[in-house]
From TrEMBL:
Residues 4-104 form the Glyoxalase-like domain. Coiled coil: none annotated. It comes from Streptomyces mordarskii. SUPFAM superfamilies: Glyoxalase/Bleomycin resistance protein/Dihydroxybiphenyl dioxygenase. It holds the Pfam family Glyoxalase_6. This is VOC family protein.
């Protein structure tokens, strides 16, 4: 797993960011390459944690990082997930139970990824 995202409707994203930053005792910083994301630094050590402004309902979702988006998506579909959208190279899945998750290409440096990644047979 790579990240935990707190999705908030665009109109509420600034207030949600201020709340989560204060509640978790961490700093919040906009992520310049993708302005809909605001990073909550070190909220969950070892994971990226951010508030994402969305055109959808509030929720929390997980991001899985992979060096093979197609293969990881296929693996998760075989486990019962359903692809519901695609955003850039990311696949958006609804998993059994109704939760949403994303499968995204490498964001961390390759050496760190190799050292920490789960490898599936």
């Amino acid at each position: 797993m790579y990240a935990v995202l707190i999705d908030a409707p665009k109109a509420d994203a600034a207030r949600a960011t201020a709340f989560w930053s204060a509640a978790l005792g961490v700093t919040a910083e906009p992520f310049a390459p993708e302005p809909q994301f605001t990073t909550l630094h070190e909220a969950l050590p070892g994971l990226v944690t951010a508030v994402q402004a969305v055109d959808d309902a509030p929720r929390i979702h997980l991001d899985f990082e992979t060096d093979d988006v197609e293969a990881e998506t296929a693996r998760l579909l075989a486990l019962g997930a359903e692809q519901i959208a695609q955003w850039q190279e990311c696949r958006v899945l609804r998993v059994p139970g109704g939760h949403v998750m994303c499968v995204l290409p490498l964001e961390t440096d390759p050496e760190t990824f190799r050292a920490q990644a789960n490898v599936w047979p």
